[in-house]
Fold this protein.
Amino acid sequence: MDISIHASFLPHEDPEASLAFYRDTLGFEVRNDVGYAGMRWITVGPAGQPETSIVLQPPAVDPGITEDERRTISEMMAKGTFAGVVLSTTDVDATFERVRSGGAEVIQEPMDQPYGVRDCAFRDPAGNMIRLQQRT
């Protein structure tokens, strides 16, 4: 079987702040930027890896979501417990310093984990948890 991850989705509430974070701080390229009814879906991904993308989408845009669910999603985003992604890099310490100097909210500075990886964690402008692991 030949299966790969093409795209994952993260919510965003401020398209310009998300662009600044993913494009300018992380260095991702913008692959698509689509607006509809006052909302924006922005597709970004690492340069040189066109097969892997993150789609930044408006939260709770599904018409089947109730108002109570929308409220819960907003509350979880505010706490940073709604969505996240794990990224990897060849130098977690240098990348961490770049992300920190870009103004990201730091959750965990780089450290060696007991399960065998060196990683750090921060939040994007929407509160999504971004873990960054050292690629071995």
User: Anything to note?
Assistant: The CA atoms of residues 48 and 119 lie 23 Å apart. Residues 67-79 form the longest helix (13 residues).
